[in-house]
Write the structure tokens for this entry.
Amino acid sequence: MDANTFARLVITCDDRPGIVAAVTRFLFERDANITELDQHSTDASGGRFFMRVEFQTDRLDVVPEILGQEFGSQIGSPFAMDWHLHFAARRLRMAILVSRHDHAALELLWRWQRGELPVDIPCVISNHPDLEAAVAAFGIPFLHVPFSASTQAAAEAAIREHLGAVDFLVLARYMRVLSADFVAAFPNRIINIHHSFLPAFVGGDPYRQAQSRGVKIIGATAHYVTAELDQGPIIEQDVVRVTHRHELDDLKRLGRDLERQVLARAVRWHIEDRILIDGNKTIVFA
Amino acid sequence: MDANTFARLVITCDDRPGIVAAVTRFLFERDANITELDQHSTDASGGRFFMRVEFQTDRLDVVPEILGQEFGSQIGSPFAMDWHLHFAARRLRMAILVSRHDHAALELLWRWQRGELPVDIPCVISNHPDLEAAVAAFGIPFLHVPFSASTQAAAEAAIREHLGAVDFLVLARYMRVLSADFVAAFPNRIINIHHSFLPAFVGGDPYRQAQSRGVKIIGATAHYVTAELDQGPIIEQDVVRVTHRHELDDLKRLGRDLERQVLARAVRWHIEDRILIDGNKTIVFA
Amino acid sequence: MDANTFARLVITCDDRPGIVAAVTRFLFERDANITELDQHSTDASGGRFFMRVEFQTDRLDVVPEILGQEFGSQIGSPFAMDWHLHFAARRLRMAILVSRHDHAALELLWRWQRGELPVDIPCVISNHPDLEAAVAAFGIPFLHVPFSASTQAAAEAAIREHLGAVDFLVLARYMRVLSADFVAAFPNRIINIHHSFLPAFVGGDPYRQAQSRGVKIIGATAHYVTAELDQGPIIEQDVVRVTHRHELDDLKRLGRDLERQVLARAVRWHIEDRILIDGNKTIVFA
Amino acid sequence: MDANTFARLVITCDDRPGIVAAVTRFLFERDANITELDQHSTDASGGRFFMRVEFQTDRLDVVPEILGQEFGSQIGSPFAMDWHLHFAARRLRMAILVSRHDHAALELLWRWQRGELPVDIPCVISNHPDLEAAVAAFGIPFLHVPFSASTQAAAEAAIREHLGAVDFLVLARYMRVLSADFVAAFPNRIINIHHSFLPAFVGGDPYRQAQSRGVKIIGATAHYVTAELDQGPIIEQDVVRVTHRHELDDLKRLGRDLERQVLARAVRWHIEDRILIDGNKTIVFA
């Protein structure tokens, strides 16, 4: 598929008859070929409407900026839509924040290296120096920004300066809690992996909590970060069975595999514009 | 949701630009409110197009027959569509064929009784008399039609007479192989549950085959019946882990639970027009 | 397998060298053939020891009572064991408490009827009259014991009188909270099915809680009942994926299937003496 | 746990009363503390007996070689056992063979690097030069041994010379079929990852086969290699759901994740002596 002519249109608005007809007609009139269309209404009447359309156009005269302007004026505004048009040729810029545990970050870098994640990665930032060599092996700049309670403001300022014009952040086992101000600068654009099946075991040391409660299944959760710890919209979750034989280290080992898988899926979906926000929940057109 | 005004439109045709726009405009012009829309193209260009639309209309002047005629002449024919319009108010008629194992048939009857499967069940037919009382408890006629190699033609004729104007059949562990002629009378309208993870373990005694091969996971498969045994389009599959500790009876016990779940899902999707045929494969808009 | 000569020995004690040797030698000296042996130590040293042995003996002179007395004096007491010997020929007596939702109770009755659960069921007790006919169809006495806040003491007394010498109780969606006194009379002998993935969504209406939180996976949990609501030792859990498309009724429908499966597994394991208690956790030798 | 005093004893023999008693008494007399014991009999009478015992001893006078000699003469021979004693202090030597796809091999190397797989890796051998740099980054020698139909004998001889005294081999997507002679030199000591749910889709291009058949679940299988292609004892399998939306590349991408997980589990179990052979099946004490 030619990435230059391949685009995704993502729409959220109040539901009413005629939205799909209007959008698809608009695309048809520009010779766009719809290759995937997903739609969801929260209610048969009076609900919210969500749609994602993948399309392709070979017409040389279709310029992304102009297409966007036309869509906005002819469809977006009349329907009071919250909409977003993303031509795949523009690669998103994704930064990774990590602490000492390397598995989640390395998994993303490894998938990026083999072409599974079509993004640019301007940098990996850590509050510890440990992963410098591992990150360098991928040819990605590694930045060490110490982060403690007393230096939080300065640390966050430094991180934001390093990030530059990034599209989204991934907290790949970044063990510091970011300030509400920092989070507010990236609404629904910070993905975190939490090592439990939320809402069970919020907060610290969830594997220890899980072992203590004696659950028979453990999980991992990828979610967007909001000001409230571990309370943001859930993107993806997965689980694995455990038994009385599994000690804490086993839970951590099994959990690492879950975290890698769950985070990789969430990041992929974010890159492909498959995640729409519905209050504190997500619509995932996967 | 008012079943009288709730309908599903299912479409298959060669892909080309403008299909979604044409169909959704047609519905919009009749004040139909689309509540769910799924679309799939097998290829970015030159492939086949599949769509399922759920919609609702409160206009009293929308008569199912007329809506269908108009859709056919205005959209279906111009696009050379294979299409189907199903108003939910018309309940499908589903017959069940079963031999001695009762679990799959009882699961369907139990779900039907509690309202999970909105169909009419004209009869349950068996080549054994064993399940008469169990079926009678649901208030459904039970018919015993013996079936042996020498009586197959007469048996199949008797079954067809009993069936009458049925919409589809479910083979809920019916252990006789139906003739190609019989099958041809119900194209993609006979659902079978096979007690293995197809294409592994085709044919008889799949649990014994599975145990003999030492697999670590067993499965069940619901598929449409075609002339070739266990080769029809797969609708749904599911699996469960097994270990060296599981004896043949354990595999059968675990497998029964799988079969019940897998068959119930397949039947539900068939009733809701969620299964489209793509050669020997299915598109399931679940 | 001849149930008359088939037995299970379940042991819990402080760990120390020689336990397995002593127990297996005791059985060997009586010509018992061990068909399954599971053992677990919570720590390499200084922990607790758990063991379950299935054995069979054809010696006519091995009398269950005497075997138990000998085991107690020769092995149990010297090792300060908490132990239990259960000859399979003695069928456990299991009572079922249920409210209005029939799926969990019917699943147990159906499995019991087909021989999957080798117990005697003296009665099904409900705080509603609704399920009388459904239970009667299995030939099991149904008792209606109304239960409200003001009548709780009398209701629980009536239930206990009806139960008689029951071995364990199953709360198959029994929606009343039993008193601490009642619960204390059946320590680790009341199995409840909770319709969430505990510890997430404790308390009422867990499917609504799950939908509100936007989880991507829902679950069900079977656990022993303790005085603290939904906090007892977890026996078994299972989960199913959900998406934004699933409405509350869909969660309930999918959840019912989970509840049936999870409860049936827990009950089966309890009957087979596979569940050992380790504080507020379970060891399940499944 | 002190690896120097930690050992595993693995036993296979004809079943008869008294085996567990004899083995555990032998260990008890040497002050060995059993930390895990698994036992399986294929039949209540007349079957085969399988056992794995993990134990620890702090006695300085327990010498591995002498313990083995004593066990052999006192227990192993009288019971005609096929047995194996493995002190964890002796790390197994594991070689990896790989072709061009790097995911399975890198997954093993990554887990080895972080201490999840306690083995020594003398070398990675490939019939292509592509992965030289990636392997070198782990500090492991990489050997390129071209392998074609005409050079097979010489190639296999070269591989065996490079391997030296290796304990077992892992075919981490090694796309050449090894000769029966080569395989015979490593009985049940070559682990292969096959990218399908065996016995479905034996042979080449299983993802394409899966897509063509329209299955709803794909899988991966780790097995020991025997002379017959894809027919050896299955160690582990896992699956993932797919839909009509998944194109061939998606199946390969999802499959890679399965292969990594399944192979890593199989290798771990092999290292920990958890896999026993029962004809063409495995007993996995996991």
